[in-house]
What does this fold into?
Amino acid sequence: MNLRYYISLLFILAISITVNAQHYDKPWFYVRAADTVTELTFERNGDVLTYTGDNIKLKQLFKKHIIYEFKKTYRKANRRNLKKTFFVIAESETFKDELLREVPNIFVFGETIAPEDKKIFEPNDYGLTSTIGANIGEQINLDYLDYLKAPEAWYYTVGERDVIIGISDGRLDTLDADFKNKTRLIKSPHIADGHGYSSSANAAAQGDNEHGSVGVCYNCSLYGTSYGDTRNLKNLKELSDMGVRIINCSWASVSSYDTAQEVINEMWDNGTIVIASSGNKKWQDTKGQVFHYPASYDHVISVGSVMYRNDSWHDNLKYTANNTYYGENIKHYLGRTIGFANNDTLVPPKIWPISIPTLNSKVDILTPTVGLFRYSRYMLENFKLMYSEYATTSGAAPIVSGTVGLMLSLNPCLPVEEIEPILKMASTNIDYLEVNRPYKGNYGAGALSTGNTIKLLYSLYTEDAVSVIENQDFSRWDFTVRSFSEKTIIRNQKFREDATLELTATQQVVLEPGTHLKPNTEGGILLKIDPTLTKECELRLRDPSLFKK
It folds into this structure.
């Protein structure tokens, strides 16, 4: 037996394991300690925790209450409170208030988690931001998946084995526990410093197996092939002809060929969607005028980079050796790094153009790139835990590919023409940020939201649900969507200029305040009610019992 796995097994047996029951019907809280050294010890007796520490007041309090979970988490914790935040599940709503009242020197803040926010699922190897998950895998920070709302998507689906994500990249691994029995090599290129390992892991590293990392569509399967052949894309076409509906290309070329576009069109007709990295050339050099391929072909989703970690630069202000102020990885900002004119922090910040990888008018959507777990290093450097330091879009595309994998796992009959519209409608609008405005028109629909995407797809295809399309401003692209929901609401939403919307619903379409449907002669709006519209198949839910009325 591998020594590392043997030690891990002993460790797993020695600690108290979080039970499988997620306790969705119980009160959930976040509580914050006064300092980072606060640690509480427990024994688990069946489903319930027993406090084993020495604090008299805590002993009395825990004796009064039934507690199912009490553990540290990075979730919902900013940099200042990163090691002070605890996730709690209790039997009684009063526990949080009593905790704050009885031991105010230990716990200083509490927040009840709303019922809607409890609709999440986490595998047992989700890492440091785990709440309901057991966190018995690697102690890694996957907070970019929190930003994407992946646990909210996993409430509905964690992927299906019959959904295959094709990875056009360096060689994939077939023996590691995160890829074994789910990965097939159609072509076996060179390892390319583990580039394919990281791409496949971001998309679909197996979750809930107490090992490694977690991919977005962690129960999906993987087919690996080579990359390149920019003129004919034979390797991609081979996957499409085999029935692969999602193909990820974490590579880019400046060469464009009509023959390649024709192959992309053929794959589209097969029902295959290609997702590709926008490229890594910096805005400082490109000014939005450089296009990479296959990302910039029609019928390809081009994926760029967005930041996600720190809520505000005010809490993340740093300075260089020569006392130049800067900030890093600010939520929804396009570039990795921001600075200040004349080093004056009293004026609004600006993104350093050198920290923005390729943006242009062909980019469709953005995902995090900095801070991604590097599975290549984990595999090639004896399980070393490392994270990406720079904004490179190779890691971004497979996150979108994994999200599309979840979409097709939930609805295997989803037409290819509805995939991109739903991704964009569910994305996070980042237009409101002043720092992003110089780049408007070059960063697509904004930031991917995996959770919102799956929730929107579920509501559109569920007869007794209400689906909501909201909070975006689209001036281009074609949106073809069907809705089988009880009511489809369009709220605080714009479709203007060259944008087209074709929405066919079986029941109601309701236009609420803030909605502007004003396309020009190149765009168009068509809203239809068709009660005879039928679904090709039913949704496949992770746990159907959660959705019974």
DSSP finds 13 helices and 26 strands in the chain. The longest strand covers residues 300-306.
